[in-house]
Sequence to fold (407 residues):
Amino acid sequence: MLNKILISCAILLLTISVRADELTINPDHPEKYTVVKGDTLWDISGRFLNQPWRWPEIWGVNPQIDNPHLIYPGDIVSLTYQDGQPVLNLERGTGQVVSGRNVKLSPAIRSTDNTEAIPTIPIDAIQQFLERPIVLEDNEIDQWPYVVSSYDEHLIATTGNTIYVRGIPEDSNIARYSIYRKGKPYVNPKKDAEGKDEVLGYEAIYVGDATIKQNGDPASAVITVVDREVMKGDRLIAQTDEEISTEFIPRSTNSDMEGNILSVVDGVSQIGQYQIVVLNLGEEQGIETGNVLGIYQSGYVVQDTIGPNIKKSEAQKEVERVKELEQAGGDASKTLARIVHAVEDGVDAFNETFPTIANIQAKSEDVTLPEEYVGVVMVFRTFNKVSYALVMETQGPVHVLDTVRSL
Fold:
């Protein structure tokens, strides 16, 4: 596992070496920081760096140190400079000191050697999304077994209730299933080549778990876990014992990417730290687990009712009118221009006489605000056309359809 991490970091460092932007140190960084339970590697790096995901640039690995890729509560992290370059140092809680590039803040999240090693990011925030399929292809769920009824033909069922399922082979030896419901489509805000809406996938709504009691057609099953009521037509998929990786190497994308936030889990209007968002960037675009992207508040459109209603001075009007007459060309065009000027003068005189009516008829102009950098997301699970990301930092309001872009 360590070799895998080292190879990944070596590739990361090669990518970093061609980056033009300068790594910056947090001006408020402490001289030393003692790691405590509940810390994450991202949080600790953020105490020293303005870009926490770029810690591999100033850390290395010493093969003489036991598990140098793991950081534990009680360890002490400090910042020094060598040859003018910032270097993070680690002092083990046991008093063992490892200096400079001889230690690495590596993204190993959990270790069989010590489950107390701190994670890179708060795993609890994304655990359920690592364990369950979240995004469905168009007709994928239609092929899954389905709930045809419940005991006593109740419309809804809950924990401990018996349900009847069709579509499970009678000779199947699989006992544990998860229950899902097809949710809303994820629609790309960017039209396809034909100018039509492109559906990138469908939300899979987790309903609960069930265990098969007796095979048959239909099979009978007992609901063991519910996240919401089980209903007729809900679909089942077999659970697996496949080990789920929680190892992440936060890093920049290999190439420039830009997309949008399609949705936010729980459907809130404003998005905060450690909430999960869906991006319209997937494996087809080259997005990878661990990729870090900046969030930019999309250019919102507001109405300007002030500028368009500022009265022009007589000198300004005269200059503009002379120019219009020069551009008018023939006598007929000039006559028409003079008529328009006379009408404008009449409207101005009317507005001065009846200001209340003038205010009702005030002009407005749509103004697009410039986009603003408002945070960072890290991708933790990818699908064909979309991905799931965790909001790591926010510096302002984040909304659905905001832009995400390579940093």
User: Anything to note?
Assistant: The longest strand covers residues 198-214. Residues 258-300+369-406 form a domain with the M1 Pyruvate Kinase; Domain 3 fold (CATH 2.40.33). The helical segments are 2-17, 41-48, 127-131, 314-328, 331-353, 355-360.
